[in-house]
Amino acid sequence: MHYLAFDVSRDTADGVLLSHTLQIRERFSVPNTTEEIISLITQCQRTVSALTVGAESTGLFHLPVVEAAEHCSVPCRILNPILTKQFLKSSIRKRKTDREDAVVIAKLLAQGEGTSVTTKDIRNPARIHGRALNKLTSLRVSCMMYLRTVEKRLGSVPPECTEALAALKKAHDAMFKELMKEIPVENRRLLESIPGIGPKLSTSILSEIGDISRFHSGDSLIAYAGLDPKIRQSGATLLSVGRMTKRGSPHLRRALFLAANIARMHDPELRAFYEKKRSEGKRHSAATCAVARKLTLRIFSVLKRKSPYTVKEITMQSS
Fold this sequence. Notes:
Blueprint: E1 2-8, E2 12-18, E3 24-31, H1 34-45, E4 51-56, H2 63-71, E5 76-79, H3 81-90, H4 98-110, E6 115-116, H5 119-122, H6 125-154, H7 159-182, H8 185-192, H9 199-209, H10 218-224, E7 229-234, E8 237-244, H11 250-266, H12 268-279, H13 284-305
Parallel strand pairs: 1-4, 4-5
Antiparallel strand pairs: 1-2, 2-3, 5-6, 7-8
Helix pairs in contact: 1-2, 3-4, 6-7, 6-9, 7-9, 8-9, 9-11, 10-13, 11-12, 11-13, 12-13
């Protein structure tokens, strides 16, 4: 097996061909277009019997790599950027260039890292709309905060700014309506039965999860969201449970955090769990992330069972 890995940017794709013995066979630098990468993959297929293509997830800049691999009937895997950063941290020289990044990606592919993808996965309409909606929401919040600052300093907001914000809100609402069309109504209703999850958060969460059958357990969904903790262990001794891995979808993680922050105020069980974590000395963000993990298990359960969640009433007892 040989590994053809790319470090991609908007204009270029720096590639390296690595043998099964992790020896560099050849380096490449081509325009980041589907046609150029197809030509490169075809060239490599003439000299090697088995080939795997891969790249680091970089917005949509890695799309030409996925398209080219699919055109050439070659398996393609996409890596989370956190993996390459961790690999570089573990190296002695800690060199970071596009050429060296491509080598790191190839070595990670040889270790079996990365997620197999096709153009269908990347061009999922719900996911595209969901991510665009998240960015649009962030932009709108930033604009509102800026206009408040302008109003405090100048005493009033120019009409042009108010009109621009209104146009942004209109675009936001239109995008949300488009996203809702891509999400099955029954799935949204299932999620909205869980305290803390309303129409907007249910739509964002489902657009990132996609088909729940992709996950074999609630823990795998937690890992996909990057909410699972890092674990350090030596022999039979557990040294520590560290911070979150953050290896999964940042958009899903953000939506789950927001939902958890609301749920811990309205759900008796989660409120008790949150207060327990706070009494143990956890900060608000760490305690809310712990609530988010419990909330993720509920989401997995209701989607798998296809039945709405029932709030459990608990009785608080003083210890």
